[in-house]
Amino acid sequence: MKFFVDTAEIDAIQELHDLGMVDGVTTNPSLIAKSGRDILEVTREICGITNGPVSAEVVALEADDMIAEGRKLAKIADNIAVKVPLTWAGLKACKTLSDEGTMVNVTLCFSTNQALLAAKAGATFISPFIGRLDDINLDGMELIEDIRTVYDNYGFETQILAASIRSANHMSDCAKIGADVATAPPNVIKAMANHILTDKGLAGFMADVKKAGIKIL
Ligand code: G3P
């Protein structure tokens, strides 16, 4: 499973990239706003850190404007994936931009029907939002399973980019189901390393090292 980092914070991306944990980056208008930076500048800087897909989202709501914005975003770097919302305008923009050879990430997906439409419109990635479904007591992980089943039934090449990931459990559950990509905030990726028995076991080793006076250097 590919790991994308879901943030526009440069330092956080760089730190995980240096550990080999970044296969791509996703941003959205809220993450860009949180960064306080110009979308074109910060996206260009992100593209300089990773060669993997970098999703930059349009802010227009009409298809023709989305297409114009998408073409401008795509010029930033070869690894740009233009992010469009799952609306009919977004699907029209997806079809046009993907036909032009631009990677498209269709976002704000909350149903299998929406995911089917995105695949037929030529989406490179589909972004089902797990956490926001869980927030309203629906089952976000079930959506990932259903899309996996439907895409595999018909050999759709659109990659499932699991998004709105809130926990390390979401990451492992996505991997068990077979999501192609999971995009998560830096803290969630880091939390994947945490286990109380690891901490306990290491403390026990260190106590014995001290007791026995074990030295290597
Ligand atoms: O990429 C989509 C993601 O940023 C949304 O996450 O936690 O705001 O639902 P969240």
Supply the key terms.
single chain; 217 residues; alpha/beta; TIM Barrel; 8 strands; 52% helix; binds SN-glycerol-3-phosphate
- Rg over CA atoms: 20 Å
* Mean of all residue-level pLDDT scores: 98
Q: What is the strand tally?
A: 8
Overall morphology: globular
Order of helices and strands: EHEHHEHEHEHEHHEHEHH
Question: Could you explain how this protein is built, in words?
Answer:
The protein has 217 residues and is of the alpha/beta class. The chain has a single domain, classed as Aldolase class I (TIM Barrel, Alpha-Beta Barrel). Helix content is 52%, strand content 17%. It is built from eleven helices and eight strands. Strands 1-2-3-4-5-6-7-8 form an eight-stranded parallel beta barrel, surrounded by six helices. Strand 4, helix 5 (88-99) and strand 5 form a beta-alpha-beta unit. Helix 4 (63-74) packs across helix 5. The longest helix has 17 residues, at 196-212. The chain is globular and about 70 Å long. 35% of the residues are buried. SN-glycerol-3-phosphate binds next to helix 7.
